Amino acid sequence: MKGFNTYPLKLVNIYIIHENCWSKYYLNKDLVEILNLIPYPEKNLLRVFAIVSERGYRDITKLKFEERIKEIFNVYRYGNKIFVDLGRDYDNSIFSIITKHNGIVLNTMKYNGGEIWNFLTYEHKINRIIKDLDEIAEIENVNISDNLPLDTLTDKEFKILSLAYEAGYFDYPRKIKARDLANMLGIKQSTLIYHLRNAEKKIIGSFIKNISKD
Q1: Is the pLDDT of residue 45 over 70?
Q2: In whole angstroms, what is the distance from residue 169 CA to residue 196 CA?
Q3: Crossing angle between the packed helical segments 178-185 and 155-167, to the nearest 10 degrees
């Protein structure tokens, strides 16, 4: 790795109560699974794509009525679950702080007034992230681990994921486009996206399994 930085990468798990977020008022024990988060900083908007139970959905609509949720864009029912596309303020969100320090959010869940966040970040940035989070929320628990969910990645997946991270592909706004990243690697854009999605799926799957064991 001569010529490259070799900062230690850590897995961080936090349980947090966010005073200015709708999650603090979601007092249901039914888990809200967050599928994806899409930021629009220029609009002060964070789109949240979530899966909830019937009971959880009733609580979320109540929070929208109380104006604790900025907007609900779409609702789709399938089986006994409900997909909800909602919006909250981007400013002072947990997501904005983690990504500001180049953290990679792996997954997040809401339940019973709190939030669980799992993310990867460089060791030297952890204190800054925790300090910024502490200014907007009550941190109940922090767990920092060296057990990164990388052992299931192929060499190619790890190489592509690492380069994407270093080049700013996961930043917002992105510092490099998928097309340019693919050109750097000498592969097609479709191949790059394929390997990135496989790597992300493996990492998230590993986290879910570890959380289930705990």
Answers
A1: yes
A2: 11
A3: 130
pTM above 0.85, yes or no: no
Q: What is the secondary structure of the chain as a DSSP string?
A: -TTS--PPEEEEEEEEEETTSGGGG---SS-EEEEEEEEEGGGTEEEEEEEEEHHHHHHHHHHHHTTSSSEEEEEEEETTEEEEEEEE-STT-HHHHHHHTT-EEEEEEEETTEEEEEEEEEGGGHHHHHHHHHTTEEEEEEEEES--TTTTS-HHHHHHHHHHHHHTTTSSS-SS-HHHHHHHHTS-HHHHHHHHHHHHHHHHHHHHHHHHH-
- Structure confidence at residue 145 as a pLDDT band (50, 70, 90): confident
Quote the pLDDT of residue 213: 53
Phi, psi of 99 (to 5 degrees): -75, -25
Q: How far apart are CA 15 and CA 17, in angstroms?
A: 7
Position 136 pLDDT exceeds 90: yes
Q: Are 46 and 131 in contact (CB under 8 A)?
A: no
pLDDT at position 2: 59
Does residue 96 surpass a pLDDT of 90? yes
Picking from 190, 186, 185, the residue whose alpha carbon sits closest to that of residue 164 is 185
